[in-house]
Amino acid sequence: MKELTDGAITTWVNGAASQFISAADRGLLYGDGVFETMHVRDGAARFLPLHLQRLAASCDRLAIEPLNLVQLTEEIHAATRQLGNGIAKLVVTRGTSTRRGYAAHGAAQPTRILSITDAVPRLAPTARVEFSSVTVSENPLLAGMKHLNRLENVLAQSSMTANTDEVLMCSADGAVVCGSMSNVFVVRPQRLLTPRIDRAGVAGIVRRVVMREAAALGWAMEETTLTRAQLLAADEVFLTNARIGVWPVGQLAGRALATGALTARLAAIVEAHHGSG
Amino acid sequence: MKELTDGAITTWVNGAASQFISAADRGLLYGDGVFETMHVRDGAARFLPLHLQRLAASCDRLAIEPLNLVQLTEEIHAATRQLGNGIAKLVVTRGTSTRRGYAAHGAAQPTRILSITDAVPRLAPTARVEFSSVTVSENPLLAGMKHLNRLENVLAQSSMTANTDEVLMCSADGAVVCGSMSNVFVVRPQRLLTPRIDRAGVAGIVRRVVMREAAALGWAMEETTLTRAQLLAADEVFLTNARIGVWPVGQLAGRALATGALTARLAAIVEAHHGSG
Fold first, then answer.
1. Which residues numbered 203-242 in B keep a CB inside 8 Å of some CB on A?
2. Which residues contact B273 (CB under 8 A, 6 or more apart)?
3. Where are the alpha helices (H) located in A161-227, listed in sequence order?
4. Residue of chain A minimizing CA distance to B158
């Protein structure tokens, strides 16, 4: 999980090749922005329409000026064609304020920072998962968005031990919310469960695709409150994220889990998906 | 409150005059850092030792590499001497990672961004305060620190109406935590109350000075849980922040409040303080 190939990162700021942003950018000063991490395969960012849809919805919720999605799409296409395979990351901030202070009034145009790399983590085929002692704070106004306030994720990943691939994070009242970089699913007979994300957590793109595909396969999809005890009692668990797709959990809090039929099926569906929507 | 003089902002990054930081800085990518906003008077940052002490303590909590405080002090002195009067802001991030992802492993030296401006907001002598509908999320691991995850403050200030100077923010369970850019105090007979900051909120520098000075005046100082109802029933309330000092609340949720004797006394003490500790 931790070994990366040695690829360089290439970055564009507002469409121009650059490695720098203004030190007065609100993304730096307040985490006032959002981001998307996209899996690039065969020269294209997979699920790009879903990523751009989430990005635009988050900007709308945060009252960040709407982006020119046509221009942005062209910039991403140009970058990913050049990359071939790897990861593209897009950060959009509210821009550089003309005034000091938290208030967003007077913020200029959003800043868009696009970076690509062929450094893709080598993953174990199944994930070794533990529970993190770092809780996820709750705020309905921020829930679901992939915003730049990610200190909790940093703390959770930084305290991971070497033989752990991912940690699950809970809210203060003990509900499982997410992995530090993933969404989590529990498979039950004919039912697929995943945590609600209306108070905390990120509305992951592969999470969305998996929910749609599982429903198409005839499984009842439930966004619900999942306790730590329910996770510990589960027989089949998997994680999702844009880079990894569907990642079966092979070990949860020290207990071995097998990869079930639905997990394998969904992993294959996501892997084979052309990724255009 | 919103009118600023037209002063420019001068910025140094890692000690060198620069307006730019790396687009791969973790401060931008994750809000992975902390900041201090300091009031500069007569060429010196007031309460600088307290600011640096808080900064170092926060870096320690976040496992950000320790700063060279001697070097940092010299840089701040050089900048504030040049400024004379105004505001100095210091942002310290974990630096630029050599690897993608949330985990802090492999982060380089911290990035320090120092900026100064003579653009000081003109404040009304007393503050008109309302309650914000934006809640403050709770996480003991982040509480007290002036970290860069400040989207809630941005949302709270952005929704303030024109005739409001500050908004009070509550936790999800209704406890008053802080103002969007201040700490809050309630004066009772011989007791001074302020919200606990062990689950949310910032350990403000002037908050700390006021607690010390009030105790020295013989007042009982209580860090406690304050409800919205207690605030609404209060006769004497004030706010604190590094830039403003002690700011009497003249209107709270539409009700007029007088500036009491303790508030005036503490305001004068903080204003007159040489600010060296």
1. none
2. B46, B47, B209
3. 205-216
4. A103
